[in-house]
Amino acid sequence: MQRRDFLTILAGAAATAFMLPIHALAAVWNKAAFEAAKLNEATAHLAINGEIPSKDIEIIAPDRAENGAIVQIAITSRIPNTEAMSVLVEHNPTALIGNFMFSNGALPYLVTRIKMAETSYVKIIVKAGEKYYTNSKAVEVLENGCG
Q: Which residues contact residue 73 at a Cβ distance below 8 angstroms, ignoring those fewer than 6 apart?
């Protein structure tokens, strides 16, 4: 085998190996849920039904956000066997902000910054086993963040 042929095959194999994680990530991406404009559409695309209200989901967010472009939130789930957390904002152009998976005993704690178009509730849905739990917090937005 000549050196040039070997390098061509090696480059092709490397490109294929690089693309595999991207295809795996794309399989997890739920495009319909992230593009849904309404809260109930987003939850339907995530196959969430029968939410149980729970105070075991702690949401730390400002009561009043100066600028909706940067609203920091912290979420902790004290629900045993938490597998996933979804962050939704009802009055945003797209309701689903993020869908986070936890595995291998990861601590179900999340700190992130979100954009909010206007005053709304930040709704958190936690999946534990086959059940879904929810809690929400009202955030008053003083300056629009989704222009």
A: 59, 60, 61, 87, 111, 112, 113, 114, 122
Beta bridge partners of residue 128, listed in sequence order: 82, 131
Q: What is the pTM of this model?
A: 0.78
Residue type, 119: T
**Cβ atoms 89, 71 nearer than 8 A:** no
List per-block mean pLDDT (blocks of 10 residues) for the chain, which spans 147 residues: 65 59 53 90 91 96 93 95 94 93 87 93 95 96 70
Task: Give dist(CA 30, CA 32) in Å, integer.
Answer: 6
Amino acid residing at 95: A
At 17, which helix (H) or strand (E)?
Answer: helix 3-28
Give me the sign of the Cα torsion angle 13, 19, 20, 23.
negative
